[in-house]
Amino acid sequence: MAQINSGNASVAVGTWVTNAYQVSGNVGANGAAVDVNGVANAAPAAVYWSYVYAANGVGQSLGYQIAASDGTYKVRLHFAETGGQAVGARRFDVVVNGTNVDDNVDIRQRAGALNKAYVAEYDVVVSGGTGIGLDLVNRTNTAAILQGIELVRVNEEGVDTPTVELQVSTDDGANWRSIASGLTLDRRGQGHYDWTVDAATTTSNTARIRAIATVNNSLTGGILQVSDVSDEGFEIANAGQSYYVNDGSLAGDEYTTAVGSNANTGKSADAPMASLAALLRAYDLDAGDVIYVDTGLYNLATNVVLSSDDSGVTIVGASGHGSVLDRGNTTNGAWALQFAGADDVTLRGWYSGAGSTGSGRRMERTPTGWC
Questions:
Q1: In the chain, how many H helices and how many E strands?
Q2: Does the predicted TM-score (pTM) go above 0.90?
Q3: Edge-to-edge strands of the sheet including 132-138?
Q4: Do 72 and 96 meet the contact criterion of CB atoms below 8 Å apart?
Q5: How is the beta sheet containing 296-299 ordered, strand by strand?
Q6: Where is average pLDDT lowest: 18-22, 168-172, 187-191, 219-223?
């Protein structure tokens, strides 16, 4: 399937790509609010904000030459009368590969109103490697316009009304349970489901999702199933507001029971992450969340950035031994912690000082308390 946002050379709308394959005519934009309600196979409303048009005058045309392999297609043309033309003022013919497939198209009349979407559909057979030539030819002095083109390849072995079941495994595919079933797809075979996660994995990166499509084949009358599994395992973290970071050693640790790894969830004492920056990137933290940074020296390659999304977070260092965030860089703009919009962040037990690297480049909590 191909979907072209006619007239817009710079902005795609979802799966509708920017204008391509146009060989004649002009481009324009109107920004009009187009009504797509109740219109079968309508494009997103934003597609109708731009358009292509022929020159004014009877016999003038706009054209496309679309690359398409040999086969059978449905060509859908998307229109809306956004220029305020009365019924009969703008009329044109639709010509595909030299054959007139639709006479006297009057967008206003067929849509039934101004700024109302209208979709015309034509069956086209492509052969001899010619692709699809499309021309809109003026019947009146007012130019033909076009807002979108949709090209659908007809699959004779296609299926009707496919549905999908989603399953999850938390043990790397050994066992599966259903998340949701009977999920429908759009005409591009796409769908989505908002999943409220209800179980955490107990081993790092052993969760997988499986999608099973069940389809009724209208030709054979049989029921088929196809499935696919996520290529890599992932972690489903437990709930709660505590997060953990540890270095590569257990010496003197106060909060964690395992060495840190960025493959861990960082959501329990036995699965700490190795980097504060990586933990902040992995989670959308909120007020009340607490990050425990265990004993160790953490050399920072870049600033640890706290954005507005991290407002209200508390970062706690080890109290009886020492946690050190060392930026190791004294150049302007290099800091251990960089506040980029975060408010009300609590740094419990940390000292910001020069150390060996310059003021503000090093954050530490020492066993003797505040420095």
A1: 2, 27
A2: no
A3: 22-24, 61-66, 132-138, 92-96, 99-105
A4: no
A5: 296-299, 323-326, 362-365, 351-353
A6: 219-223
